[in-house]
Structures are given as structure tokens and as C-alpha cells.
Amino acid sequence: MPRICFVLIGWLLCRLAVAQTVTVESLADSGISLRTTWAFRAGDDPTWSQPNLADRDWKPIDPTQLVADLLPQLPDRLGWLRLRVTIPKALRTQAFTLRWQQTAASDLFVNGQLRRRTGVFPTDGQPIQATNPFRRHTLVVRPDSTGTLTLALRFAVQDDGLSVGQYTAPDSHLFLATLYPADADLTDSFMIRWQPIAGAFTAGLFFVLFLLHTVFRFYNTADRTNGSTALACFCFGVAFLAIAQLFTLVDTQTAYARWTLLGTLAYPVGYVALLTAIYAIFEKKMGLNYGIVVGLVGLCVVFFFVRRDTDLLWIEFGPALLVTAECSRVMLKARRQWGGEFITAGMVAALVLFFVYCLYSVDELAFIRPVALTRFQVQIIYNTAVLCIPLSISLYVARSFIYTQRRMAGQLLEVQRLSKQSFEQEKERQQLLASQKQRLEQQVAERTAQLQQSLDELRTTQNQLVQKEKMASLGELTAGIAHEIQNPLNFVNNFSEVSVDLLEELREERTRPAPQRDAELEEELLSDLVQNLSKIQHHGQRASGIVRSMLQHSRSSTGQREPTDLNALAEEYLRLSYHGLRAKDKSFNASFEAELDPSLPPVSVVGQDIGRVLLNLFNNAFYAVQQRKQQDEPGYQPAVRVRTQRVGSSVEIRVRDNGTGIPEDLQRKIFQPFFTTKPTGSGTGLGLSLSYDIITKAHAGTLRVESSDQRPDAFTEFVITLPI
């Protein structure tokens, strides 16, 4: 009887010696969680591993708490955890598998025996090295003869590399353990096995896009799109590479924390770079809206570091929503831009996938989920959503690059064709010069006949213009044409008369007897004759060119639109208008200037009608500066300027003079029929009215006036806008 009492007392003392106990009633393949309350004590003592240690005065603690929350209780960064697991008799002969994750360096004792060491303790002469919390450790254990598993965990935690401000690396739990049957299938879940592969694959795609856009950036340094897109792809590649690293190659807690922080910060930087690329593609200024979005992204980052309980969605999903919303706004305003369908499709896909990801990531929205998805499927949806926008930009850039290459190839073929044509023309010109000496007299007759024919055609053209012209500027146009052609005609007539005299003198010299002929004189006469004929040819060609140009613009109009060079049209009618006024008033002088945009494309217009409009505006401009010049204003210099430029999808022609200007109360009347500011008998009042109808009704353009009559800064400027 006393012996039985001693046994009972000893058993009670053993029960009291262990403060924390877990009793296993049964054990399924899913295992039993040991994430219950363990006994905890700070410090380090090897005897604390003994199974019969009296630990009832140890502090109960939750081992799943974050390491950062436990640090204040560990002045030396060392501590112990103990837990007693009671196995029923039916299971005592079986082996069990203990599987755990930890964020610490640890020695695991089972029933007093050291079974597993992970990480590095400071007693080894090295800094503490905790393990990656994603690493899963497995150990086969057996209970003692009494059916007890006494687990003692000696651990050391580190505080360097774990936190920045209030940020703590996620999933940094101290100790998470589960007990399984020995024959349980402990193969990692599909999510754990394939997430690093999916992350590595997605990172590879982003790095390939990064290399492509980097090459494009060096190929075209003026385009900011490729630089920003390359930065965005690099950041996203780093973020997904971090996911692959955390599940595969990272062993220590320091590396885990740094990779996690690097991958987390890469998201907002990547999204800001992506927004910059969208602004560059659609040629938007980075103004207030851009600054607001970037500022909100920055607030997400700051909030993430100052609030410990902030979820990763703040810094990953928050910038994604902000940037995607702003990109959508920009695209809606520029939806008609060439190639924008790629980016629009990518943005729509990203918005839909982000919505699905949010739906399956927020537990409060579980009631509206249409179907059940695994965590891996949700992660794939997020990876695809992040990839959509950069991939759509890459497709847009690739299409632009192909288009540019094709256009350059076409231009190269055109240059080759023109070069070949120029070579053939040069060859023909050389052949013509070689035979010219034998046909001098014949050419004189031919050129004279051609010149006469050109004069006849010019008179016919002038008669047609007189019959069809509806504006009062016909006199100035005819005078300008005559002035342009008079100079070469004078040269032709003068050199023709001199050539006839030279031929008569040469004939007289050759009729003399051979002893009396002067060979040097004959050679000199022939040389002078060649020079005169060359000059006749030059000025004849000049007159012929003027005639051809005028015939082109004065032939009967069919009313059909044709591609027209507005630069050439404006320059020609500006010159004709000036010379027309000069022909009427020899004392008039004014400076005129043409600022022509060389990149202006041909515009489909009725060239004859637009020419009439320009001529009318030029005549009015020169008339205005002439009137002001006659007022003898000190220091006044008359000037007329025409400028062409492309504005969006339109061509703009501005005709400006520094004449008398138009009073403000008359500006709204100048386009009315029969209204004129000229003296009675000097104008019909139909010029601007007809011009307004030609521009607005026949060509769907606009014609407006800007003017001021305040001296000395008086001016008038007519602005023509024609759609391309």
C-alpha cells in the first residue's frame, strides 16, 4: 500500500511538472495541429531539454506569433519552447511525422534527445541566422514507453534584416508545427509546387520584354515609351523573381526578408513606370493628374511602412488599381490614336482580371464568387493581369517598329528609283549637249517658235481666267504673271537681235576671198553666237517653266479634289500678288516672307479654288500695307507673311500683314457679301465672301480673322484650317 501511494504521488508530480500538454485521441492523414499554447522561457540552459523538467512556472505563449512581437521578451535573442504530446495506447507503437516551419535558428529535442538543428546559433561564433519561414522541415518521431512525446525547442531569433520602420517581413512566425501519421502523404500542395515555377516563368517573360524594350530604347533614343516600359518590365520581373526565390533558393531569414521587401517595392515603381509609358505613348503632359496618381502610390508605400498591420495588398494591389484607372482615363481621351486597340485590349483584360483577383482575395466578397478557384489559379490570374498592360505596350511598340521599317523600306526604294531616274536624265542631258553644236540655228528657230506658242497659250490662259474669275483680284494676278515672264522675254529678244547681227557679220566675212578672210574673227563670232544661243535657251526654259506652272493652276477646273502641295501654292500666289501690285504701282515696295512647313503632307483640295482664296488674301494684305505706307508713318516697314503648319489632323495657313488693321466692330461683317472697307469703286465686296464659302462649304474647313487697328502694333491675320 505505501508503494502504491508513492507511485500515485510521483505520477501527480510528473503531471504537475509539465505545464502545457496536448492529448491525441486519434490521428487522421490531415494530422493534428500543434499550434496550441506552448511553455516559454527566455534564456538558454541545456537542462531545459530534459523530458522530466518541471516547467509549470514557464510562461504560456502562442508559438505562431510574429518574431517581431516576441523580440521584447528575448533580451539575449535566445529562448525555449516546450510541449508535451500524449499518445493513446492504440497508437504508441506507431511512428509519427513532425512537420514544421520556423523563423529562427533552432535545436529540436524529442524526449530529451537532439534530433534536428537548423540555422546558426550565436554560440557557434557566428551571427544568428534564422531560416526561411517558407522552408518545411520534416522529422520522424516516436513516443516513449509511456506514450509521451516531449518536444523542447531551443531557438534563437534575429532582429537585423527583418524590419524597416514598422514594416515586418510577412509570414515571420516563430514556430508552426503539425503532427502526421508516418505513412501520411506529405507531398507539397499544387500551389506550393507550381507557384515558384509560375513566378519564374512570369519573371522570365518580363525580363525578355525588358531586354527588347532596352534595345528599342537605344535604337530610338527620342522615344520615352521604351525606356519607361523597360523599367516597368524590369521591376515586375524582379517582383516575380522574388516569388520564385522565396520558394526555392532562399535559405535564411535575412535573405527572405530582403527578397520580400525588394519584390514588394518593385510593384509601385513598376506601375509608376508603366503610367509614364502610357503618357508617352499618347503624348500627354505629366501634369496634375499624373502627380496625384504618383502621390497616392507614394502614400500607399509610406502607409505600408508606418502601419505594422498593413496587408501586402496595400502596396501591390493599391498601385495597380490607381495606375490602371488613370491609364483607362488617358486611353478613353485618346481612343482614336493609331495602334491604341492593343493597349485598350490589354487594359480591359487587366481590369477584368484585377477585379476577379480582388473578388477571390477579399474574404468579405466570398458570397458573390460564381465558381470556386484554388489559390494557385487566383495567383495565375494576378500574374496574367500584371502582364497584360506591359505586353500590350510591347505589341504596340512592335507594330510601330514594323510600320516604321516598312515605311523606311518604301522610302529607300523611292530613293533608288529617283537616283536611277536622275542618272538617266543626266545621261540624256550629256547626249543633248554633245549634239547641240550641230543644231544651233535649228534650235534658235525651235525655241523661238516654242516661246511664241507659250505666249499664245499664256494669252489663252489669261482669257480663261478673265472669264471665270469671280474675284476683284484678277488684275493683280495678270500683272504678276506678265511681270514674271517679261524679264526672260526681254533677254530672249535682246540676244536674238544680237545673234542675227553676228550671223550677218559672219556671212559677210565668209563671202570674202580666202586671202582676205580673218579666221580669228570668224572663231570669235562663232563663240559669241554660241554664248548668245545658250542664254536664249536658258531664258526660254525659264519662261516655259513659268507658263507651265500657270497652265497647271489656270486650266479648267473639274471641281474634283486632288492631292495638292499647299506650300508651293502659297509661295507662288504670294509672289504673283506682290508683282501684280508692283506692276500697278512701281513706287510700292514691301517685304514678303513664306514660312513653309517642309513636313506638310499633300492635302486633297480643289487647287484652283484654294489658289483664288490665297490670292485674294494676299492682295488684301498688300493693299493694307500699301495704304498704311502712303500715310508716311515714321519707321514703318510694310511686311506680309504666310505660314503653313500642321496642327493635329489639320493643316493651318496663316496670312499676316502689318497694315492698317480692321476695327473690331467691322470684323464680324467682313465675310458678308458686298461688304468692303475699300473706297467706292476699288472693291466689289465679294472676295472674302467667296473665299469663306470655298473654305467652309466646299472643303469643310474654317476661315477666321484676327486683327487690331491700334498703332503702332496694328495687324491683320487670316487663318485657314483645312482637314487632312
From TrEMBL:
InterPro entries for this protein: Galactose-bd-like_sf, HATPase_C_sf, HATPase_dom, His_kinase_dom, HisK_dim/P_dom, HisK_dim/P_sf, Sig_transdc_His_kin-like_C
Segment forming the signal sequence: 1-19
Residue ranges of coiled coil: 423-471
EC numbers: 2.7.13.3
GO MF annotations, alphabetized: phosphorelay sensor kinase activity
One Pfam family, short name: HisKA
Keyword presence, Coiled coil: yes
Keywords: Coiled coil, Kinase, Membrane, Phosphoprotein, Signal, Transferase, Transmembrane, Transmembrane helix
Segments traversing the membrane: 197-219, 231-250, 256-281, 288-306, 342-360, 380-398
Catalytic activity: ATP + protein L-histidine = ADP + protein N-phospho-L-histidine
UniProt cross-references to PANTHER family, sorted A to Z: SENSOR HISTIDINE KINASE (PTHR43065), TWO-COMPONENT SENSOR PPRA (PTHR43065:SF42)
Protein name per its UniProtKB record: histidine kinase
